[in-house]
Amino acid sequence: METIEHVVLLNTCPSLDIAQTIAKTLVEEHLVACVSILPALQSVYLWEGTVQQEMEVLLMMKTRRLLYAQIEQVLQALHPYEIPELIMIPVVAGLPSYLQWINEVTQPLSFINN
């Protein structure tokens, strides 16, 4: 069985400003290659026994699976939600040159400096 190397991570944010801060931080730290920000989505969910309905911003982050734990730490430090969404979706295939680009730009400084 082939090991999944690349993933897409999903996260929702309460505002565009917060989404942009998280996206920029993750890209600057070389933890993700790209973050697509999809504004103005409506989420309906159950929270503390009540159905909630909120406008949110969706982040789609393209990265490598081995960086998930570091991304999770950054997200928890920057995200205002008590329980932020972070879902990992495996990439089972992709344009080889795009996947190679992900590999090239996701070299966290902690890896480079070692």
Explain how this protein is built.
The protein has helices at residues 16-28, 68-78, 96-105, 109-112; strands spanning 6-13, 34-47, 50-64, 87-90. By secondary structure, the chain is of the alpha+beta class. The N and C termini lie far apart (31 Å). A hairpin with a 2-residue loop joins strand 2 (34-47) and strand 3. The protein has a four-stranded antiparallel beta sheet with strand order 2-3-1-4. It has four helices and four strands. It has a single domain, classed as Alpha-Beta Plaits, CATH 3.30.70.120. Helix 1 packs antiparallel against helix 2 (68-78).
Q: What is the count of helical runs? A: 4
The computed structural class is alpha+beta
What proportion of the residues is helical, as a percent range?
A: 25-40%
Extended strand count:
4
Tally of distinct domains = 1
What does the largest sheet look like?
A: 4 strands, antiparallel
Low-confidence stretches are none
Q: In sequence order, what are the helices and strands, one letter per element? A: EHEEHEHH
CATH C-level label: Alpha Beta
What general form does the structure show?
A: globular
What is Rg?
A: 15 Å
Strand content of the residues, in percent?
Answer: 35-45%
Query: Architecture in CATH?
Result: 2-Layer Sandwich
Major sheet: arrangement of strands? 2-3-1-4
Mean of all residue-level pLDDT scores: 93
What is the fold-level CATH name, i.e. the topology?
Alpha-Beta Plaits
The span between the termini is 31 Å
GO molecular function: copper ion binding
Protein name: Divalent cation tolerance protein CutA
Family: Belongs to the CutA family.
